[in-house]
């Protein structure tokens, strides 16, 4: 009902998964810029204006906006905020290549025309894959725009957090299999990931 009242077109993907949904949206979109926002995010009033302004350099193929916590009510939310959980600033400093989480990101349409759409074989991690393919297969660069803000709710209980981390872990393994030829020192990175997840788990338990 809300979508209809706002004049927004709802497109249903035939295949399950975020990559398939994004691909259906890209196929229906008419503009030269394809902008992504998660359903549970709230965009800042200047979100679109700041996003588009970040494409002034024609070498930029993707813009990653910042993802800010929606609230910090529970101790777990406060902890996750302190850890910069889901922050785009962490994604753009990835040890392999920067990437844009599509909770707040935009691409030039030409990027998809040149390298194809999101990999529907990836149920998670498809956003990192797209950013990496763009940088490996084209001369386009990724630009981080901290002033392009959306507000994203954090998990409020450990069960939800563990489920999210489980999804992220599946995505990390799938991405490793796809890009391991580019990561000669991935074993040490995996150990770092393990200890980071263990640290998050142990510290989170203190707030229960």
Give the arrangement of secondary structure elements.
Blueprint: H1 2-6, H2 18-28, E1 33-37, E2 42-43, H3 47-53, E3 60-69, H4 75-82, H5 88-91, E4 104-108, H6 109-115, H7 126-137, E5 141-152, H8 158-179, H9 186-205
Parallel strand pairs: 3-5
Antiparallel strand pairs: 1-4, 2-5, 3-4
Helix pairs in contact: 8-9
Task: Provide structural commentary.
Helix content is 46%, strand content 16%. The longest helix has 22 residues, at 158-179. It is an alpha+beta fold. Helix 8 (158-179) runs antiparallel to helix 9. It has helices at residues 2-6, 18-28, 47-53, 75-82, 88-91, 109-115, 126-137, 158-179, 186-205, and strands at residues 33-37, 42-43, 60-69, 104-108, 141-152.
Query: What gap, in angstroms, lies between the N and C termini?
Result: 38 Å
Strand order of the largest sheet: 1-4-3-5-2
Output the helix-strand order.
HHEEHEHHEHHEHH
Rg value = 17 Å
Note the main sheet: 5 strands, mixed
Runs with pLDDT <50, length 5+?
none
Q: What is the total tally of β strands? A: 5
How many helix segments? Answer: 9
Helix/sheet category: alpha+beta
How much β-strand is present in the residues?
Answer: 15-25%
Shape: globular
Task: Name the average pLDDT.
Answer: 84
Helical residue percent band: 40-55%
Give short descriptive properties of this protein.
single chain; 5-stranded mixed sheet; about 15% strand; alpha+beta; about 45% helix; about 210 residues
């Amino acid at each position: 009902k809300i979508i209809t009242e706002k004049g927004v077109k709802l497109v249903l993907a035939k295949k399950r998964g975020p990559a398939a949904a994004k691909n259906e949206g890209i196929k229906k979109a008419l503009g030269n810029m394809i902008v992504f926002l998660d359903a549970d995010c709230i965009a800042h009033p200047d979100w679109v204006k700041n996003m588009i302004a970040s494409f002034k350099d024609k070498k930029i193929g993707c813009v990653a906006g910042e993802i800010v916590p929606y609230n910090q009510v529970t101790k777990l939310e406060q902890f996750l905020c302190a850890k910069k959980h889901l922050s785009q600033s962490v994604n753009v400093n990835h040890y392999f290549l920067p990437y844009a989480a599509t909770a707040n990101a935009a691409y030039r349409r030409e990027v998809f025309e040149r390298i194809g759409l999101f990999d529907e074989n990836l149920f998670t991690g498809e956003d990192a894959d797209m950013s990496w393919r763009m940088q490996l297969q084209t001369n386009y660069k990724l630009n981080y725009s901290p002033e392009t803000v959306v507000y994203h709710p954090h998990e409020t209980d450990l069960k939800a957090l563990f489920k999210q981390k489980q999804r992220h872990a599946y995505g990390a393994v799938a991405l490793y299999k796809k890009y391991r030829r580019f990561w000669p020192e991935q074993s040490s990175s995996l150990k770092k990931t393990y200890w980071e997840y263990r640290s998050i788990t142990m510290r989170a338990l203190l707030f229960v």
